[in-house]
Amino acid sequence: MIPGLASRRRFSELSEQEVLALAISSEEDDAQIYRLYAERLRADYPASAAVFEDMAAEEDHHRQMLIDRHHARFGAVIPLIRREHVAGFYARKPVWLAENLSLDTIRGEAEAMEREAGKFYKLAAQRTSDADTRKLLGDLAAAEMGHEKKAEQLVQTHLTEDAKAEEDRAAHRQFILTWVQPGLAGLMDGSVSTLAPIFATAFATQDTHTTLLVGLAAATGAGISMGFTEAAHDDGVISGRGSPLKRGLASGVMTAVGGLGHALPYLIPDFWTATVIAMIVVFIELWAIAWIQNKFMETPILRAVVQVVVGGALVFAAGALIGGG
């Protein structure tokens, strides 16, 4: 049995007072989530932060209405019951994940929060045979559905087309700084820097197994080195480049991928077959780098080709000359 599962109660086992108490605690949790979202977004996305502040205020208002209703029906003492105490109740992601969510993801999470709550209460109302409980759950469902419509109105009020476009541009820029730029640097390093040792070994030994081992070692070592370097040299606080963990992961993985691309063909036993395929892979890698530079970094395609393809060709030639010497 899963630890803690035995202590959780089914929703069908809750009394009307406990259902109302659960609704109160859920509204309180959601208001806190919205405020943390607002705080997370305030510096970079002020319009969206204002939306979440108003949504939190709406949750506070409905929570107070539920408290007043509980006081009228059951008294001032509200049972302590939360989502995690009820088996099958809709769950919320841990609030601390907001630090790692994009703007679009946070917006989507907020919409899902209201939609899930409304759907849950609506289905729960259909499953009960008690008239008072059915009315209570139906009112809660209507309130949550109203929250979703209110959220749309708040977005229209605070998040104008210009504000949304500006926030989308800021989110895209952050994506470039956190993921694309470190990943591109890693791909360039892994693809270009490993050319010389791999092809020097290949032409010096003409042994595919030895070349494969050198390539695996070079790609893995470069990936680890680039990943740690990217994560350690800038914590992102002043530069605004985002999480060092994300940047280190992007840089390290793409560095290893760049090196492995022209090392893995040497799994083929025949030397010249493996080498020709490796050369084709190198050509594809270099053009992919040029394409990424042009698409995401807005580097003119001709300049990107010259920088990457010519540079890669020089490194490849150096490795081939050294290995064949």
State the main characteristics.
single chain, 325 residues, mainly alpha, Ferritin, two-stranded parallel sheet, 10 helices, 2 strands, 76% helix, elongated, disordered N terminus
What's a quick, concise take on this entry?
This protein is mainly α and 325 residues long.
Give a structural overview:
- With 325 residues, the chain is mostly helical.
- It folds into two domains: 9-159, Ferritin (Up-down Bundle); 166-324, no CATH class.
- Helices cover 76% and strands 1% of the residues.
- It is built from ten helices and two strands, in the order E-H-H-E-H-H-H-H-H-H-H-H.
- It has helices at 16-41, 46-74, 103-127, 131-158, 161-193, 195-205, 208-233, 244-261, 271-296, 301-324; strands at 9-10, 86-87.
- A two-stranded parallel sheet has the order 1-2.
- The protein is elongated and about 90 Å long.
- The relative contact order is 0.09.
Strand content: under 5%
What is the radius of gyration computed over CA atoms, rounded to a whole number of angstroms? 29 Å
Biggest sheet: strand arrangement: 1-2
> Helix share of residues?
over 70%
The total of helices stands at 10
Average pLDDT confidence is 79
Q: What is the first-to-last residue Cα distance?
A: 67 Å
**Class of secondary structure makeup:** mainly alpha
How do the SSEs run, as a string of H and E? EHHEHHHHHHHH
Low-confidence runs:
1-5
User: Major sheet: size, sense and barrel closure?
Assistant: 2 strands, parallel
Number of structurally distinct domains: 2
Instruction: Please report the total strand number as a whole number.
Output: 2
Shape: elongated
